[in-house]
Design goal:
This protein is of the alpha/beta class and 389 residues long. 38% of the residues lie in helices and 12% in strands. Strands 7-6-5-4-3-2-1-8-9-10 form a 10-stranded mixed sheet. Strand 9 and strand 10 form a beta hairpin. Helix 5 packs across helix 7 and helix 8 packs parallel to helix 10. The protein is globular.
Length: 389
């Protein structure tokens, strides 16, 4: 399994040592327990769910260029509006958190924009009350007014999008003033965290490389420095092409009797100038920033060109063990096997307890099909479930 957690990621733990046992538990499950479960070959996962990933809402106030949901080729545009508006009542999520509390899984909340879910703060309070790790991803535009609650509740990680210096960030995000609102929110959280003497949440910008910003990553890192972040993540971006997508469709039709469509949301422009990208990465490294920077996926420089020009190349990654450790909950309560490509539905938490879904017929069917196909499907070559951390 070609997947790593860079040691630099451990540096912020000197300030938050209470997180170390929980993170080590997750790493052990990912690298030791889950591969063992895969080798059993029965499609079951005998380990508790490690990560509960909740796509809390489809709603978003931005239309970002690199978004597979609401970008130019976004898959949400082909879905019925009524379906997109469905959400799970907060009471159902709270009950779920209570039932899973003894295992203390990590919760990862995303969207859409999570702050557009009306009961988001009630849900996060319940999760933290059950002593689970909590990370939330936001575009930052609603952060300033919620900064006090974020710190008081003890969120562990607050991840926010950062696509460039102010004008470029706003251009990629599709709305002027987005950078200013995000920056004000991040600074408000940091100021209140310091005022109260808290060590969390970690402030983590998610920097997605694209054709529009690949030559300016050093400027983005400088913007992150000015915001006072704890670490940063540079994503080389997730994307695919028609050839890979059609191959993926054939495999799904043959093995799972399903025609997938989510991959079409990842057909956006990924024509990155890798010479400019390498130069900007070198400038970042030369700057010696005081916070660790993670690169996802973790690739040597000589593989960057292949990453962008050949989206069928797995570059040594695989097999995917995410379906043995992680459950993906969609806004309407459907449970999916993949965050980026949520085509295969294994159940719905409004109808069936998650604990029954986890090793139910549909999950077992998917895991077995994945193993029969060598541990990956074609679109997995550019997916955070396989290549992320």
């Amino acid at each position: 399994m070609h997947s790593r957690e860079p040691l630099s990621f451990l540096l912020p733990l000197w300030r938050t040592p209470h997180l170390l046992p929980k993170l080590l538990k997750s790493i052990f499950a990912k690298h030791i327990l889950a591969p063992r479960e895969c080798r059993r070959g029965d499609g079951l996962s005998h380990i508790p769910i490690q990560l509960v990933s909740i796509k809390i809402t489809n709603a978003c106030n931005l239309r970002c260029r690199t978004c597979a949901q609401w970008g130019e080729t976004g898959y949400n545009f082909s879905r019925p509006a009524a379906d997109l508006k469905k959400v799970v009542p907060v009471e159902k999520y709270s009950e779920l958190s209570d039932r899973l509390a003894k295992h203390r899984p990590v919760y990862y909340i995303w969207g859409g924009e999570p702050f557009l879910y009306p009961e988001i703060l009630n849900l996060t309070a319940r999760i933290k009350g059950n002593k689970s790790l909590l990370a939330l991803v936001t575009n930052g535009t609603f952060l300033e007014e919620n900064a006090k609650a974020v710190v008081d509740q003890g969120w562990d990680a607050l991840m926010f999008s950062l696509d460039g210096p102010e004008p470029l960030h706003d251009e990629i995000r599709g709305r002027k003033g987005t950078f200013k609102k995000m920056a004000a929110g991040v600074r408000a959280v940091k100021a209140y965290r310091e005022k109260t003497g808290k060590s969390v949440p970690w402030l983590i910008p998610l920097i997605t490389v694209s054709a529009w910003n690949a030559d300016r990553l050093d400027e983005i890192a400088q913007a992150a420095l000015q915001l006072g972040v704890d670490c940063a993540v540079i994503y080389y971006s997730w994307f695919t092409d028609e050839t890979v997508g059609k191959a993926h469709t054939r495999v799904f039709q043959e093995k799972l009797h399903l025609t997938p469509s989510a991959w079409r949301g990842y057909l956006f422009n990924h024509d990155v100038d890798t010479h400019a990208l390498k130069a900007s990465l070198n400038r970042i490294r030369a700057a010696c920033h005081p916070f660790p920077i993670l690169y996802v996926p973790d690739l040597p420089e000589d593989q960057l060109s292949r990453y962008y020009t050949n989206p069928s190349d797995f570059l040594g990654y695989g097999p995917c063990i995410s379906p043995w450790t992680t459950v993906e909950i969609m806004p309407d309560g459907d449970t999916a096997t993949c965050r980026d490509y949520p085509d295969f539905i294994t159940g719905n938490i409004l109808e069936t307890p998650l604990e029954e879904i986890w090793n139910g017929e549909r999950y077992v069917e998917f895991r077995k099909a994945l193993l029969e196909n060598g541990g990956t499907f074609p679109v997995c070559a550019r997916c955070c479930g396989l290549m992320g951390w």
